[in-house]
Amino acid sequence: MKIELMEFKKLEGEATANKRKAKLIFVYEWEFELKLKANIAGSDTVYDGVIEIPNLSDENDASEIDGNFTLTTKGPHENEIRHFGNHELRDFIRKQVGLYIRDLKEEFSKGLVLPTDKVKPQVVSSGKTVIDKKAFQNEVVQKTQKDKAPVASNGIIECKSFDAVETFKVPPERLYEILTDEQLVRAWTNGSGKVDVRPGGSFSLLGRHFVTVLPSQF
């Protein structure tokens, strides 16, 4: 039996890597379909088919990837080819997905986390006088801040409002998770926000509270 993977019929998704306190967080989600051709030795029939991978994401290991195999050509060897596609071909796809995940986390993340060795203070020497440049700059900054006159305020702050519309190429339930899962929020904001998703729960991004939570309407 010979099977050739021809081309991508569908390839949608994205992958991002974020750094948080010298730790990398990877978020990725892909959905793709591959066209293929298969034939059996001694037979002139060429079978066309498609294998679909609907759940390649950071929530699944490579061994958990599903492979939906379908044939569009009828012939006497359909069952044999389907069995191969649902087992050996699926395992091959899982292996390739495992290589992609490894490269994403090891190869493509190089340079995102740099050494954080303590920087030695710069010292400027002039004659017999030695000046610590960093300490001098800090002293100047502190004195400058003390000399600033306090800003008067009458308690009224001018505000304006605006409307914005964003389009996300992810399923609604996945978008809801990205916006409400604390670890994911910290990843895409690159901050230390806190999210307590329940009525009356607080979140630190804007210093406000959730009035109500309606995940079913996402």
Topology:
Layout: E1 2-20, E2 23-39, E3 47-57, E4 68-71, H1 78-106, E5 123-126, E6 129-132, H2 133-147, H3 172-180, H4 182-189, E7 202-203, E8 208-209
Antiparallel strand pairs: 1-2, 2-3, 3-4, 5-6, 7-8
Summarize the structure in words.
The structure is a single chain. The protein has 218 residues and is α+β, with helices and mostly antiparallel strands. Among the domains are: 2-106, Activator of Hsp90 ATPase Aha1, N-terminal domain (Bactericidal permeability-increasing protein, domain 1, Super Roll), CATH 3.15.10.20; 172-217, no CATH class. 28% of the residues lie in helices and 29% in strands. The chain has helices at residues 78-106, 133-147, 172-180, 182-189; strands spanning 2-20, 23-39, 47-57, 68-71, 123-126, 129-132, 202-203, 208-209. The protein has a four-stranded antiparallel β-sheet with strand order 1-2-3-4, with helices on both faces. Strands 5-6 form a two-stranded antiparallel ribbon. A two-stranded antiparallel ribbon has the order 7-8. The relative contact order is 0.11. Mean pLDDT is 77; it is low at 123-129.
Would you identify the regions where 5 or more consecutive residues have pLDDT less than 50?
Answer: 123-129
Q: What name goes with the CATH superfamily of the domain at 2-106?
A: Activator of Hsp90 ATPase Aha1, N-terminal domain
Helix content: 25-40%
Question: What is the CA–CA distance across the termini?
Answer: 46 Å
What would CATH call the architecture of the domain at 2-106? Super Roll
- Measured by DSSP, the beta-strand proportion falls in 25-35%
Q: What number is the mean pLDDT?
A: 77
Strand order, main sheet: write it out: 1-2-3-4
